[in-house]
Amino acid sequence: MISIQETTDLLGLAIRNVLSSRKDEKFYNLVKAWNKKIVVDVSDMYPITIIFEGENIKFERREVEDYDVKLKTDLQTLLDLAFGRIGSVSAVIKGKLKLKGILKVGTLLKLMKVFFKPLKDVAKNPNINYFEQDKEIK
Fold this sequence. Notes:
The protein is α/β, with parallel strands linked by helices. It has one domain (2-123): SCP2 sterol-binding domain (Nonspecific Lipid-transfer Protein, Chain A). Helix content is 38%, strand content 24%. It has five helices and seven strands; from the N terminus they run E-H-H-E-E-E-E-H-H-E-H-E. It has helices spanning 10-20, 25-31, 75-82, 88-93, 105-124; strands spanning 2-4, 36-42, 47-53, 56-60, 69-73, 98-101, 136-137. It has a seven-stranded mixed sheet with strand order 6-5-2-3-4-1-7.
């Protein structure tokens, strides 16, 4: 089972809700033992680090120094990605989404499945209260 840490800050809560929307075995297999630190830095807000560690997902409201991948974008681009108004590759090419860190193709592809796919799914059906569902992914 994947356990996702509770958080109280706005960005952490939003990311937690996006990740909590996936409760299927495919998602579990993607994140179990991934052991990566992903920094999401949204301009005019603050950075947050998502720590995938074993079967746990944790958050730190700061940028850790030893991250694997850092995503830097603004809120509008994040919304555009969620609602499909821009693709992640286009966002990178246009400089609206910047990536830093260990940019291995496998890590990036997994990041797309772990973060951007659920982001789009939640945007398609925003009226589902994902935060009210079970707290653990089975």
